[in-house]
Write a structure and sequence with these properties.
By secondary structure, the chain is mainly beta. The chain is about 10% helix and about 35% strand. The chain contains three helices and 17 strands. Strands 1, 5, 10, 11, 12, 13, 14, 15 and 17 form a nine-stranded mixed sheet that branches. Strands 2-3-4-16 form a four-stranded antiparallel sheet.
């Protein structure tokens, strides 16, 4: 999307729950690559998180999927660090509305694009403000979808200062349901996204269909020695509406291989290919 994403983090002391904590950031830090690729798939260097390969070749997705957020240099995979691949989290340390500092993270743990159609599959680790730690995933999904208007469906963050928006989007949840990923609580939604200017020309036109899944974790991001932030996993699959069914099964397979140490699995009716067309489904009530 080419847009930066932001989040407000009020100063708070958070009691650590069981889980992993990533440290060593400091203020105004540079992004740190936390991914590693092996024959066992993709693993996070700090979190107990793995995505198993989808075939004996060791590839996460099939041969028609191109790993987009890494590139190969000198025989090694390096993370892309252009602005489309970074998120800048602005910190309000004392809740006074002034953003005293910024932490930069790579936006994606994984991002794949399809070689033959416009399909994209991605996985993000998105920090929450401490007071959002116990919010229902259904509520967080609505907040995320509302944020699509300002940041695009891949770059949304929770809270933060106003953004300069190049394009405006309209997003509508057309199907949603509780889900589980790797044994963790999750929430799935199918979302139709359109450019507002396009809608003015053609009110029925939908630019993109997106399958989104929010996954609650026990991970924490340590920004300083005193402040830690809960981490929400966000994963999505986007495509042109007509082509969306072509890769939904591959996306479900991807979700079913996200492993927090208990084995991979996925359950979620909102993304089921056997369910009615999400475009005809009744949206969830506010």
């Amino acid at each position: 999307m080419g847009l930066r994403s932001w989040v407000v983090w009020p100063l708070a002391v958070v009691a650590l729950a069981s889980g992993c904590v990533v440290g060593g950031h400091g203020w105004d830090s540079e992004a740190i690559d936390r991914g590693v690729f092996t024959a066992s798939g993709f693993a996070h260097k700090d979190y107990k998180l793995r995505v198993s390969p989808g075939s004996n070749s060791g590839e996460i997705l099939g041969p028609n999927w191109i790993l987009d957020n890494y590139y190969r240099r000198d025989g090694e995979l390096k993370p892309r660090d252009g602005e489309d691949y970074l998120s800048h989290y602005s910190l309000d340390l004392n809740g006074d509305g002034t953003f005293e500092s910024t932490v930069t993270e790579y936006r994606f743990l994984l991002r794949y694009k399809h070689a033959e159609h416009d399909g994209v599959i991605w996985l993000r680790a998105l920090p929450l403000s401490p007071d959002e730690r116990r919010k229902e995933l259904k509520s967080l999904m609505r907040t995320y979808v509302d944020g699509v208007a300002g940041a695009g469906y891949e770059a949304v963050s929770f809270g933060g200062p106003p953004q300069v928006v190049e394009r405006r989007y309209a997003a509508e949840i057309v199907a949603a349901s509780p889900a589980r990923v790797g044994g963790h609580e999750a929430y799935a939604a199918t979302v139709d996204v359109a450019n507002v200017d396009q809608l003015k020309l053609s009110p029925t036109r939908r630019k993109t269909r997106v399958g989104l899944v929010l996954i609650r974790t026990t991970f924490w991001l340590r920004v300083s020695g005193e402040v830690n932030y809960p981490v929400l996993l966000v994963t999505g699959y986007s495509n042109q509406p007509d082509d969306y069914p072509r890769a939904i099964a591959e996306y479900q397979s991807f979700l079913g291989r996200i492993d927090f140490g208990q084995g991979g699995s996925f359950e979620g009716a909102a993304l089921s290919p056997s369910s009615p067309d999400p475009g005809a489904a009744t949206p969830p009530s506010p």
